[in-house]
Specification:
By secondary structure, the chain is an alpha+beta fold. It has 13 helices and 18 strands. Strands 10, 11, 12, 13, 14, 15, 16, 17 and 18 form a nine-stranded antiparallel β-sheet that branches. It has a five-stranded parallel β-sheet with strand order 3-2-1-4-5, with helices on both faces. Strands 6-9-7-8 form a four-stranded antiparallel β-sheet, with helices on both faces. The longest helix is centred in the middle third of the chain and has 18 residues, at 231-248. The protein is globular and about 55 Å long.
Length: 383
Amino acid sequence: MSDVGVRGSGSLTIGVLGGGQLGRMLALAGTPLGFRFRFLDPDAGCPASAVGEVIAGAYDDPQALDRFAKGVDLVTFEFENVPAETVRRLSSRVAIAPGAESLATGQDRAHEKRFFAQCGLPVAPWAEVHDAASLMAAVDSVGVPAVLKARRLGYDGKGQCVIKRREDAPSAFDALGRVPCTLEAFVPFSRELSVIAVRGRDGSFLHWPISENVHRHGILHTTLAPAEVEPAMERAIAEYARTVMHSLDHVGVLAIEFFDDHGRLLVNEMAPRVHNSGHWTIDGAVTSQFENHLRAIAGLPLGSTAPRGVSAMLNLIGSTPPLEALASESDLKIHLYAKAPRAGRKVGHLTTVAPSREVARERLRRLEGRFAPESIAAAASSA
């Protein structure tokens, strides 16, 4: 990996592949450090356009990539659906972190599962699917219920189907477009956990407190951090993250999601980037995941990941409540992404930092009831 040094007053021009809300929050965290930002995104009006220059173009457009790379000191990415070949192409011209191996691992579920096994991380039974015959063989091997997931390009519940009966498998495969998939055993977990960790260029490693997450319709709904976990479980989760990042020589932030199956940990998936379940760190930690990602890739010392209290985060999905209503909550931090409303789209998040889990949970229930009542109704109807 190329050496990167912070020049003079700390000014670097950082290129970000992707101009969504994660890129926007990276720039908001890096501007106080004196960094400047340029984004490559197909949409010139993407959320990050408010905080930096945007080169509008496809991620595999050679001319757009040349314009994007000219004059930047360092490149990173905000989501893992950027072609790995793009990162490899850029790496011959400019330092990039994380590297292509992290990106390629995180964007292919089968590759990711094999990598976890090589690292000694526990995963649920699974099998690859590439045609009708391998689909039925996978169902017989893994059993039902199971989840059929597209190997690539799936996120926020997209690109996956639950198979409850063997005879439902062919229609599920058709629904996903008969693309290469993984079939994964359905885990009757008691809760979902995640760890956000950061690794510096010098190999230094830190992680934030473990988060407890609730999803609705495959999309992250709420996060509570620190989660209530036994010290031995937190040590195991942190060690898994350290092993993964060391094996990939990963520099920057990485997230790993786990199923807590009544005390037994199973790895679900990883994201080699800043992550939605770490958004609470903006307001609830000494150093946010976004600032520490930038510190890491720029070769700066990492900042403290200690919590400032117990944080509760609520995603705003589909539409944004009136700003006046949000601002009337005096203990609330508001983060809006300047995205047009659309069903299933993350348009913002809310965070509150409390002195205890009890207070944090109570505030979260109040926020859900006021700003996400449809999620409460959906949870009640499915109970």
